[in-house]
């Protein structure tokens, strides 16, 4: 067995930044779990730069740019308009078979690919380390040092050489849509009907749908997941919950206990207890269940269980300070799309009180721009 080193590089355009008395700065340090971090500020990052472009979306039978990229080992020789970067490289040692190590050093393609897969296998650890370092730089020095992510690459080191894999943003595959005459009639009747809504309804609907549109356009899966909760939470504010029978009965019993046994403090305790009871509101999950029962959309019982699961994931994402919650929660594409479908249907019902939301559901969406190596 032999020891090799693999890692993950993230390159930022440090817009407007420079070093006062030197042209570049590089240093290294170790984190826990055997991760080494190499940090570089300057014009010539160690792993060069990938410059190119691609469309965000792909429409079947339509023109699109899948990926047009060029690699420059010397970033100053690239077409990129600025030449001061922040580069963060997180790496770790891996134990590999002697045969793999030898093949890798002979630059055999299968060995290159396997080494890069070993780097990708530690993706979560590397991402957390890079986020930590970049975040500290932005927080304690200035956000402009890490303001614009440019490249991220898995890397396998080989003596003084290296192999990198380009990882670009995925492309979302969209539907080919055509508004038929029935749709034309509906949109011509629906939109003018909004004119009859009162100003309060216009304000509320506009705010809810503004957040929904932001979630639609978000590319990062975690941000997208969290983003969809804002419009559904806003819509749930207007849900009228049925009287909470147990709460009222228990509150009545406790008031009697205060009157009978509170003694001289009963006069003060009763108003305080009443104020606590008045603050009790149904939970988010309870309000969604009330909306689902009212709407009776197809599969509403499953929607209630799905919302509980989505809310649990959201809470883990937002409450990372709890010691029993992992620092990073993985969210799959399927979970985000399922949440999107649920939010669209129930925001639609909350605003329009019907089930007529479009049904152009998603296809397998992303063709990743990955795999190019240098």
Description:
By secondary structure, this protein is an alpha+beta fold. It folds into two domains: 2-168, no CATH class; 178-241 and 282-365, no CATH class. Helix content is 45%, strand content 20%. The chain contains eleven helices and twelve strands. It has helices spanning 98-105, 109-121, 123-140, 181-193, 199-217, 221-236, 245-261, 266-278, 284-295, 300-318, 333-352; strands at residues 2-13, 25-30, 36-42, 49-53, 57-58, 68-72, 85-96, 148-158, 161-167, 171-173, 366-367, 370-373. The strands form three sheets. It has a seven-stranded antiparallel beta sheet with strand order 2-3-7-1-8-9-12, with helices on both faces. A three-stranded mixed beta sheet has the order 5-10-11, with no helix packed on it. Strand 8 (148-158) and strand 9 (161-167) form a beta hairpin. The longest helix has 20 residues, at 333-352. The chain is extended, with a radius of gyration of 28 Å.
List its salient traits.
seven-stranded antiparallel β-sheet; 374 residues; single chain; disordered C terminus; alpha+beta; 11 helices; three-stranded mixed β-sheet
Any chance you could write out the topology, listing elements then pairs?
Layout: E1 2-13, E2 25-30, E3 36-42, E4 49-53, E5 57-58, E6 68-72, E7 85-96, H1 98-105, H2 109-121, H3 123-140, E8 148-158, E9 161-167, E10 171-173, H4 181-193, H5 199-217, H6 221-236, H7 245-261, H8 266-278, H9 284-295, H10 300-318, H11 333-352, E11 366-367, E12 370-373
Parallel strand pairs: 5-10
Antiparallel strand pairs: 1-7, 1-8, 2-3, 3-7, 4-6, 8-9, 9-12, 10-11
Helix pairs in contact: 1-2, 5-6, 5-11, 6-11, 7-8, 9-10
């Amino acid at each position: 067995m032999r020891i090799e080193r693999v890692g993950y590089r993230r390159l930022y355009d440090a817009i407007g930044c420079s070093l006062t008395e030197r042209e570049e700065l590089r240093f290294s340090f170790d984190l826990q779990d055997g991760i080494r971090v190499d940090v570089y500020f300057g014009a010539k990052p160690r792993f060069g730069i990938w410059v190119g472009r691609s469309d965000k979306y792909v429409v079947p039978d339509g023109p699109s740019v899948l990926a047009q990229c060029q690699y420059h080992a010397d970033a100053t020789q690239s077409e990129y308009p600025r030449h001061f970067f922040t580069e963060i490289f997180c790496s770790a040692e891996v134990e590999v078979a002697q045969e793999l190590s030898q093949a890798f050093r002979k630059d055999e393609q299968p060995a290159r690919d396997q080494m890069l897969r070993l780097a990708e296998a530690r993706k979560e650890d590397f991402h957390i380390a890079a986020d930590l370092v970049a975040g500290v730089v932005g927080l304690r020095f200035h956000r402009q040092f890490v303001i614009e992510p440019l490249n991220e690459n898995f890397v396998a080191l080989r003596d003084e050489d290296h192999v990198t894999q380009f990882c670009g943003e995925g492309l979302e595959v969209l539907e080919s849509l055509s508004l038929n005459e029935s749709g034309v009639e509906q949109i011509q009747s629906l939109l003018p009907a909004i004119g009859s809504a009162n100003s309060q309804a216009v304000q509320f609907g506009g705010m809810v749908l503004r957040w929904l549109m932001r979630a639609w356009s978000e590319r990062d899966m975690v941000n997208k997941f969290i983003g969809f909760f804002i419009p559904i939470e806003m819509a749930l504010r207007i849900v009228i919950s049925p009287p909470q029978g147990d709460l009222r009965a228990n509150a009545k019993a406790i008031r009697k206990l205060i009157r009978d046994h509170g003694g001289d403090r009963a006069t003060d305790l009763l108003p305080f207890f009443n104020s606590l009871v008045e603050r009790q509101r149904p939970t988010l999950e309870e309000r969604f269940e009330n909306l689902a029962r009212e709407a009776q959309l197809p599969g509403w019982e499953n929607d209630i269980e799905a919302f509980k699961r989505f809310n649990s994931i959201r809470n883990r994402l937002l409450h990372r300070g709890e010691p029993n919650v992992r620092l990073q929660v993985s969210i799959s594409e399927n979970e985000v799309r399922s949440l999107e479908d649920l939010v669209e249907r129930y925001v639609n019902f909350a605003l329009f009180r019907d089930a007529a939301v479009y049904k152009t559901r998603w296809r397998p969406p992303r063709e990743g721009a990955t795999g190019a190596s240098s």
